[in-house]
């Protein structure tokens, strides 16, 4: 079990440290952790946010536990040198195209979400976000128009095979849950989305037991707060999935709770909280590490088939929460380390 640990910037190292403690507390046979530099931290040390040595570590490991990258002091660098390129580069280089972002309400947190408790209580959904295409990876640049105005551009596109492979992930996930798949797009305006919708419908023929629906992304944003209980699995593109998953996090209480798995066609997986480096609270020891701890649970489940240990971690997080161990993000005052202690104690 060789796991790369890329802690990154801001709260990244703080939350990753607690997830590592949890993994180590399980006494897994053959567990080996290999640290590597990413993000602004890597730029300062190696002159690049994703240096070759880090990529080599990633490729030599079975899975990656990732903290967060992002550092406002790097925002004036050329884009290819900015911290965010570390995570974008890993996703692309390793073919991590399927991003699973589950959102459920933990017992006892119903009153702490941004929604009314009776609305929040029903949430048990999985957002499947395509991670290798869309406007994220199209041609982009700055240019000057003929009449001298500056213009920025980013090309949005999806090829049919890219949509087909994420569609299969969506349908298969739905088969293992409540057999409802909602594909979110903007087909009323975008050709990229029209192709997306056409391909999703083609693939649906192979999954007659899954109830497929389509929703425009603006409506989906609205429905996610109006009646999130209607969703089982959502499948969507890179940009829409990024936005909707941050929104879903507040529907269940906090962005400090949402974990994710980014999977490739083979066995490689990268696991990270959906939140960023949170520079506003970095270095204070107050970030909620639960999203990263829950990402470690996903790592054990998806990369190593260790369902029992994954469930144990999830139960330990749920137990700590129901004991009232809550960070500032949930209106409590438990610090990062204290939350880690509580989860390890529950384990
Ligand atoms: P963010 O997710 O870092 O923070 C948004 C808000 O949520 C902040 O108020 C922050 O304090 C709070 N928050 C986030 N995680 C928390 C936690 N675990 N516990 C308590 N509160 C938490 O988003 P942002 O402020 O828009 O971005 C900051 C930097 O992070 C940027 O450089 C951005 O590019 C980067 N980012 C990186 C990733 C990643 O590494 N995958 C993801 C998102 C953003
Ligand atoms: C995320 C982040 C990243 C994204 C950024 C940091 C590139 O917001 O993982 O959700 O947009 O995918
Ligand atoms: Mn995001």
Observed structural traits:
alpha/beta; 10-stranded mixed β-sheet; 347 residues; two-stranded antiparallel ribbon; binds 3-isopropylmalic acid; Isopropylmalate Dehydrogenase; 19% strand; binds nicotinamide-adenine-dinucleotide; binds manganese (II) ion
What is the element layout, followed by pairings?
Layout: E1 2-8, H1 12-25, E2 32-35, H2 39-46, H3 52-60, E3 63-68, H4 84-93, E4 98-104, H5 117-120, E5 124-130, E6 140-144, E7 150-154, H6 160-175, E8 180-185, H7 191-204, E9 211-216, H8 217-226, E10 233-236, H9 238-251, E11 259-263, E12 269-273, H10 290-304, H11 307-322, H12 336-346
Helix pairs in contact: 1-10, 1-12, 6-7, 8-9, 10-11, 11-12
The site of nicotinamide-adenine-dinucleotide has 22 residues, from α4.
Structure description:
The chain is globular. The protein has helices spanning 12-25, 39-46, 52-60, 84-93, 117-120, 160-175, 191-204, 217-226, 238-251, 290-304, 307-322, 336-346; strands at 2-8, 32-35, 63-68, 98-104, 124-130, 140-144, 150-154, 180-185, 211-216, 233-236, 259-263, 269-273. The relative contact order is 0.16. The two termini are 20 Å apart. The strands form two sheets. Strands 2-1-3-12-11-4-5-10-8-9 form a ten-stranded mixed sheet, sandwiched between helices. The longest helix has 16 residues, at 160-175. The chain has 347 residues and is of the alpha/beta class. The mean pLDDT is 98. It folds into two domains: 1-97 and 264-347, Isopropylmalate Dehydrogenase (3-Layer(aba) Sandwich), CATH 3.40.718.10; 102-258, Isopropylmalate Dehydrogenase (3-Layer(aba) Sandwich). The chain binds nicotinamide-adenine-dinucleotide, 3-isopropylmalic acid (IPM) and manganese (II) ion. The site of nicotinamide-adenine-dinucleotide has 22 residues, from helix 4.
């Amino acid at each position: 079990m060789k796991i790369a640990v890329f802690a990154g910037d801001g709260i990244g190292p703080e939350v990753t440290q607690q997830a590592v403690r949890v993994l180590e507390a399980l006494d897994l046979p053959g567990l080996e952790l290999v640290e590597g530099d990413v993000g602004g931290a890597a730029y300062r040390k190696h002159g690049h946010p994703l240096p070759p040595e880090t990529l080599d570590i990633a490729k030599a490991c079975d899975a990656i536990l990732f903290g967060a990258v992002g550092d406002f002091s790097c925002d004036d660098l050329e884009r290819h040198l900015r911290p965010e390129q570390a995570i974008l580069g890993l996703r692309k280089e390793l073919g991590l195209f399927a991003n699973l972002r589950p959102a459920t309400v933990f017992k006892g947190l119903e009153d702490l979400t941004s929604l009314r408790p009776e609305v929040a209580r029903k949430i048990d959904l999985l957002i499947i976000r395509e991670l290798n295409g869309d406007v994220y990876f199209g041609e982009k640049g700055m240019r000057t128009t003929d009449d001298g105005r500056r213009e920025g551009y980013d090309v949005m596109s999806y090829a049919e095979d890219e949509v087909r492979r994420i569609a299969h992930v969506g349908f298969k996930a739905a088969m293992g849950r409540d057999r409802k798949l909602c594909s979110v797009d903007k087909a009323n305006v975008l050709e990229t989305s029209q192709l997306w919708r056409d391909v999703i419908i083609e693939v649906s023929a192979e999954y007659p037991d899954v109830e497929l629906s389509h929703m425009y992304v603006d409506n989906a944003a609205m429905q996610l707060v109006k009646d999130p209980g209607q969703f089982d699995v959502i499948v969507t593109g890179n940009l829409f999935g990024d936005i909707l998953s941050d929104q879903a996090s507040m529907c269940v209480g906090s962005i400090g709770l949402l974990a994710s798995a980014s999977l490739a066609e083979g066995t490689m997986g990268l696991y990270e909280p959906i939140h960023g480096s949170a520079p506003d609270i970095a270095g204070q020891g107050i970030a909620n590490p639960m999203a990263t701890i829950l990402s470690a649970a996903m790592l054990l489940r998806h990369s190593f088939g260790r369902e029992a240990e994954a469930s144990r971690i999830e139960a330990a997080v749920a137990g700590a929460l129901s004991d009232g161990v809550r960070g500032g993000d949930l209106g409590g005052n438990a610090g990062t380390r204290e939350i880690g202690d509580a989860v390890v104690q529950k384990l």
